[in-house]
Each structure stands twice: as C-alpha cells, then as structure tokens.
Amino acid sequence: MQTNTKILLSYTVIMIIGSYSFYVVRNYNFENRKYYMKKRQEEKKRLYKMTQHNENWMRDLPLFLKLKPLTHLFIPGSHQSFSDLLNKKLPIATDVPKFLRFVDSPWARKTIERWGRCQELHVTDQLRFGIRYFDVRVAFLPGECEQSLDIFLLHGLYGRPIKEVLDEIYTFISDHPEEILILDINHFYNFNDELHRKFLGQLEHLFNGKFIPAPPSLSLNQVTVNFAQQHGFQLLLFYQQKLAEQFSFTWPSSYIASPWPNTNNVQHLWQYTENILTCRDQILPKGGFFVTQCILTPTWWNIVRHFKESLRTVMATKTTEQAVSWLKKNSILLMPFLNIVIVDFVELFDFCTTVIQLNFQRRNVAMEGDASGSDSGGEESEIKLPGKVGKKRLAKLRAKEERKQAREAEEEERALKRQIEEERAEKRRKREEEEEEKERQKELEEKRRLEEEKRKEQEEYEKLKQGFTVEEQGCDVDINEDTDNLLKEFVEYIQKAKVVSMEELAGQFQMRSIDVIDRLKSLLADGMLTGVIDDRGKFIFVTEDEMKAIVTFVKQRGRVSVDDLVDYSNKLINMDPQDVTLQCS
C-alpha cells in the first residue's frame, strides 16, 4: 500500500513539474518570439531604406564614372547568389562528393542546407540592395525533364529552377532600364552539348537584345555604363563553356578571373586577397573583370564540430563584417586593383553601400588629385614606384592615373560615337543605293516586259497578215498556198458549223479571241463570208439566199417589229449545217 502511495505521489510531482516547465518554456518562447519579431521588423525597415538608396545606383553615377569601363568600377556581388532556397525534399546535389551522397538522409540534408545556404535574400531583394554580379551554378536534374527544360540551381542541395530566377531578373531590368548586371554561370552539372544549346537558346529568347556583345565585337574599354545605357544593353553574360564561343552574346572565361582563397582562416584570407590583388595584371594580361572573394570555406571538420549551427553563425557573419572594415580601411590603396567584390549574406553590415560608395570616393580622390597636381602639368606617364612611397604620395600618383584613365575612357567614348555615326551613315548610304538599284532593276524589267509584249503582238500581227496579204518578191506576186488553205479551212469550218463561238474558233485554229474577231471582220469586209456576230459572242453564218429572203420580207412588210423580224429570220435561216450549200468565193 505504501509503495503504491509513493508511486502515485511521484507521478503527481512529475506532472506538476512538467506542467510548470511547459508554462515556463511556452512563456519564454512567446516572449522570445515577440522580441525577435520586433527585431525583424526593425531590420526590415533598415533594409528597406537601404534598398531605396541602392536600387538605381548605376543610373545615379556621375558621368565621370559612367564613362569608365566596367572593369574599373567597384561592383558589389554575391557568392553562391541563388542559394537562398535549397530543397531538402530533393536528393543531395551532384556537386557534393559521392561518399556523402551515399549516406543521404534527412539529417544530412538539414545539415547541408544550413551550411550550403550562402544568401538569405531572393534575387529581387539582392538587386534592390545593389548587387550587380551573380555567381551561378546550374545542374540538369535527371528524371525531371520529360516535358520541359528543368535546369536547377544548386549548392549542396538543389534549389529553385533557374527559369524562376531569370524571370525575376527580367522583371527587374525591365523596371530599371539603366542598371547593368553581370551573370557568371561558371559550374555545370549533368550537362551535354544539346542541353547547353537549349539553355543558351532559352537565355537568348528571354533577354533578346539586352546582352552586351562579347569581344571581338567590342573592346573592354568600350564597355561602359554610359555605352550600355545608350544602346539598351543590360546584361553581361559569362558562360564558362567552350561551346558558348559560338554565340555572339556570351563572354568567354578568359575575360574574368575569380581566384578562390580556399581557406577557413580569416587571417589567411586577407593575406591571400592582398597578394592576389597585386597580381591582377599577371592573371588577366589582356584585361578583364576581377572578382575578389571575401569568403571562408568550411572544412568537413568545421561542419562536424558545428553541425547544429550554420555557415552564417560560425563563419560568414564575422567574415563579412571584417570584409567591410577591410574595404573601408584600405579603400585608397585598393582602388587600382579592386573591381567586383563578393561575400556571403550581402545584407550584413551595409556591404553593398560600402562597395558602391568606393566609386564616389574614387571620384573625390581624382578631383583632389586634379587640384593638387594642376601645377605639374604635362602628360602623366604610367605609375612606377621606385622604393618605398608614402601613402599621400601614393594617393596622388593613383589620382593622376585615375584622371588619365578617365580621359582615355572619354576619348574612346567620343571615338566610339564617331564610329557609330559613320557606321549609321554608311548603312544609310548603302540602303539608299540598294533602293536605287531596285528601282533601276524594276524599270528595266518593266521595259523588257513591254518590249516582249510588243514583240509578241508584232509576231501575231505578222501571222495574221500572212492570212490576207501576199509577199512581194522582186516584181512577181505569188499567193501563199498555205495561207489560202488556212483561210479556206477557216471559212469552211464556219459554214459547216453554222453557229460557232469565238472561243471555239480560237481553240480550233490556235488563235487569240481578238484575232478571231479581227479575221471575221476582215472576211466579212472582203465578201468571203456572210453572217452576223451576236451579243453572246457567237458568229451566225447566213447564206446569200437567206439574206435576200430576209431583205424581201422587210420590203414587203414595210415597218416590221423586232420580234416579228426575229421570228421570221428563225424560219428563213436554216440552222442545220447539214442542209447548207457551201459557198466559197
């Protein structure tokens, strides 16, 4: 009995403690949720203000910067740009090592999703923040493409179909016609040549006329914000596959470099970045876009140690914060080297604004350099730094280099405008010449046609003439026997038929209807044939006896009505060709 009482008391205590714990946890979660919801609302307001400021930053650039090549601007970009939505229901993606794909399980996918997501913002939000460079990986998902071309984004796990992202980009550039984007599609999985062609065809169809033409159509120095805005170009596409060289709108990989630090140590990252920046000219001897990756790459040991955490909490937040500080601290020294800068989670620490503002800071430095260097005059030569140079001196030298580059860009822009005007004038001249040539050809064809018609009419006339005339040869006149036979056949056929249509005669004697009528009139005038042509286009042969009988009837009756004349004529004229006595004059 005592044992049962103890057990009952124990259950009661457990239930009371459990109920209290549930209340405490529930209350804590509720308060915690309220706190985070409030913080999230504040963050949304701050981010909204930032997006309003950076949404059209290329449009708002001063002309000085719009005339600079894109390779000399500071452009914010995102690493693994479209990894914000990774699908845990699909299998582990093909960019993950095979051994990990063999142990595919729900917990493995959750871990990969936490460590594979490098961005929180969708593509539209990134664009509004000011991101203009996108790092893209795509894969064809076997078994998902029976009816359509299903190409998916991926990073550890498969993400959204790329068609959805491309549609969002198209909507943004349509609403912001002065913004220029760089798409760098650099990794392809499960692709073959046919899929590459289909995908490129899909891109060309969607963004028709928006792509900046690839070299050799344009040089790097010609690709400026101002040039793109004037010609309606908004997309620069890097498609890092050899097959893409067949398309005029795809830029080859030789015009972009994106060195990967491949480290999980922050100090090593900045050492590597500073060293690699100084080698930009060696990496891109012909010039091009240079991507600085301010990111850390976790090892498998990092993931195992923190498998319940995420890339953002363990590495990315700290790295992005240090990247922003590094850019602000070394902005003047980095100006000649930096171009595109990418990080994870671009919404953190005003990264986009910091990179965009470097462009305006460059302008200020150049203007200060103009003021301080106005006394020196002359043409600035290429910067060479013998020995150790102070920061101020280095800043002045770089300001001179900036002025020189701006001047060269402006001259190239003017030369390009002249070239475009000359090309337009040349096209206009060629078009006018082609139109004149067409008119000339048209007139010649019309002249030939008229001459041909005239020649045929003359031939027909000569044929007809041969039926009525004789040829003169010297002083003797010989009647052509063939012509006599032809006329005789013509007359006999009409006399036998009694009533015959013009079409029938034309078909029988291979003549035109107009020629048949002319011949009948001629025969009637010569007295070789007697009869009438009625209003139905038929010729009625009337013998001389029948004609005399009708004349006698009219004389006897005096005034005769048309109806009486018709009735009497039908009686007098024998329509049966069998009873007609053929008369041939």
UniProtKB/TrEMBL annotation:
This is DDRGK domain-containing protein 1. It is found in: Endoplasmic reticulum membrane. Residues 424-456 are annotated as: Disordered. It holds the Pfam family DDRGK. Residues 438-456 have a biased composition (Basic and acidic residues). Residues 64-226 form the Phosphatidylinositol-specific phospholipase C X domain. PROSITE patterns: PIPLC_X_DOMAIN. Belongs to the DDRGK1 family. One of its GO terms (molecular function) is ubiquitin-like protein ligase binding. Keywords: Endoplasmic reticulum, Membrane, Transmembrane, Transmembrane helix, Ubl conjugation pathway. It comes from Trichinella nelsoni. Gene3D superfamilies: Phosphatidylinositol (PI) phosphodiesterase, Winged helix-like DNA-binding domain superfamily/Winged helix DNA-binding domain. The keyword Phosphoprotein does not apply. PANTHER family: DDRGK DOMAIN-CONTAINING PROTEIN 1 (PTHR48176:SF1). The chain crosses the membrane at residues 7-25. The lineage of its organism: Eukaryota, Metazoa, Ecdysozoa, Nematoda, Enoplea. InterPro entries: DDRGK_dom-contain (IPR019153), DDRGK_domain-containing (IPR050899), PLC-like_Pdiesterase_TIM-brl (IPR017946), PLipase_C_PInositol-sp_X_dom (IPR000909), WH-like_DNA-bd_sf (IPR036388), WH_DNA-bd_sf (IPR036390). GO terms for biological process: lipid metabolic process. GO terms for cellular component: endoplasmic reticulum membrane. It is a single-pass membrane protein.
